[in-house]
Amino acid sequence: MTSLTLDRFRSLKNLPSLPEQIDNVLMATETSSSMDYSVVEMIQYDPAMAMAVLKVANTPIYGYPEQISSLQQAAGLLGPGAIKNIILRTPIIERFSDNSSEALPVDYLQLWIHSGVTAAVSGGLGRFIGGMESDVSFTSGLIHDAGIIALTVYFPTAFAKVQDFMDKNQVDLIEAEKQTLGFSHLEVAGELIEAWGLPPQLSQVIRHYAAPTKNNAHWEITAVVALAKSLACEWGFPSGLKGFAETKQENLLDLLGISAKELQKWEPELKKYAEFSLDTMKIP
Amino acid sequence: MSSTEYEKLRWQEAETIRNLLKKQNSLLGDSLENLDHLIYLQKSINLLSLQEICQVMVEKLPFILSVKYFTFFLFDKNRRRLSLVSHNHPDIKEEYSLYQNDSPIMREATTSGRYIFEQDFSTSRYFRGRKNPLFSCNFFVTIPLMIENEIIGVMNLNDNERGLYNVGDLDFALNVSEFVALSISNAMLYERAEKLSTTDGLTGLDNHQQMQTLLKNEVVRCRRYNSPLSVIMMDIDHFKEVNDTHGHQKGDEILLDFSAIIKKFCRSNDVAARYGGEEFFLVLPETHIAGALHIAERIREEMAIQKFQSKGKNFQVTVSCGIAEFDSTHMQEAANLIKVADLALYKAKHEGRNRTIQGSADDLLDA
Description:
The complex is a heterodimer.
Chain A: H1 6-10, H2 19-30, H3 36-43, H4 47-57, H5 71-89, H6 108-129, H7 134-143, H8 146-154, H9 156-169, H10 173-181, H11 185-195, H12 200-208, H13 219-234, H14 249-256, H15 260-281
Chain B: H1 3-44, H2 50-64, E1 69-76, E2 81-87, E3 97-99, H3 104-112, E4 116-118, E5 140-147, E6 150-158, H4 167-198, H5 208-225, E7 229-236, H6 239-246, H7 248-265, E8 271-276, E9 279-285, H8 289-305, E10 307-310, E11 313-316, E12 319-325, H9 334-350, E13 356-358, H10 362-366
Parallel strand pairs in B: 12-13
Antiparallel strand pairs in B: 1-2, 1-6, 2-3, 4-5, 5-6, 7-9, 7-12, 8-9, 10-11
Helix pairs in contact in B: 1-2, 1-4, 6-7, 7-8
């Protein structure tokens, strides 16, 4: 087991984003024709920037600590100037930064697309199923892989050991993380969410979406995120991570009490949400 | 991946990141500069005089907000009027005010409480094709200044060197407007409190304390320059009976009308005060006793012909006046002058009221 502990993640100040994404958003904030809303639209599909904005919006100075789970709410509270400053502070992902001969082991472009599509589908499912806060299901979908980003960018060597273990022992990613690090990337995300003062329900959802059951708090949103992730992969937007064992779609549908037919009926609309997220992200 | 491909990718990434870091750095610099400006402005306008704040705005606001021209109007919501209190337009006269409805753009800003930002006022519905030859570019920004949802004024921004105003500029201007609103509001509250502390609440005349302060100053000035100084002490006759017969509201009405008459005959340097109850006091700098007598008589006569109505009947109210001139040989201080006027007033009452009696320093010896 490595010496890396979960506490190390609690002290992280931010998550990095893709250079293209940061550039796009900065350009949007600079041009006079860009209305505030278009900037929010862009960052609402970027897990790193979205988490940074939510982190600031949930600080006590704005009056709603641990209560803001929607980007729109956060943007309304902070104003475009504060959002721009957050983007300016967002670090840039450098896959080739550490003079090693290998790049970071994750295709972040693919991961970003996967996160954005999962968010869009998760938000859509939340609305169709009803009885839950679709804002929370959207944001949970968006940041469900925040733990992977933190782990691979800030501690690539530790993650390399996880991959090594996975390859050698033929176990899934979460099992390999637990065996190698003592915790999974879901717990990393949970720690980050808690340390950054985001609403606790987000942390509860992210910690359990890999194996949702009715015993979990907010189990409906947890299952929605798992289903959205599965649909994103099925529709050609996988995360690119090896070894993540997904819960079967049938089980998730059973858990949520919806039929395959219902899901089929929603599919065209959900795909539109996914396409919209891709258009908005403007990722080449 | 071959080593050449790897190096190429690595080089491309380094190039992208270098450019992005330059951009982030430059924008962070702008952000820091804005922050510095905001702190500096806050320090500069942390004043209690509205006039001084307006002067600071003229000196600093255009630079801080990156605009060439600005106007700042105070909004009086009861009278629905906008009064220009600060600007740097070369062709606007100093005293300028207009009704809220006369400016469609400021009307909208003050009604909705939202800023208005358009890139081209020549195509804007607010200006319908009009163009201001002063401006080299066409954007305009109108920002309502608010304190707790109360609109206290409007700030208009026009023209700059760059030829455009972007959302970043606008956002900064909105932040600045909040600081300005706070300072303006503080200064207005302070000035109002200061005025209330020296003014009689009913009549708007100076109160007793303020009159005493001003009279003392006048006595000092009078002694130093050997200039004349007179005072008039006035009392409404049978005021208690008026109150008892016609009610206190009618009594207040009479006090207000009498104050209006006093104000009418006051010159710019005179000090009119409510001495207490139904007693009033006038300080008349640079005035000999003859002038004071003239003014007192005009006030008394004007009051005597004033008609009041109560329960369908007309009635009249008279006043008695005591006048005195400062005599530096026999009077040491302001209190002596007041005493002489008071004794004269007493005499006027004693001799039948509705008259003016002239007092003298000799009266002090008898008192």
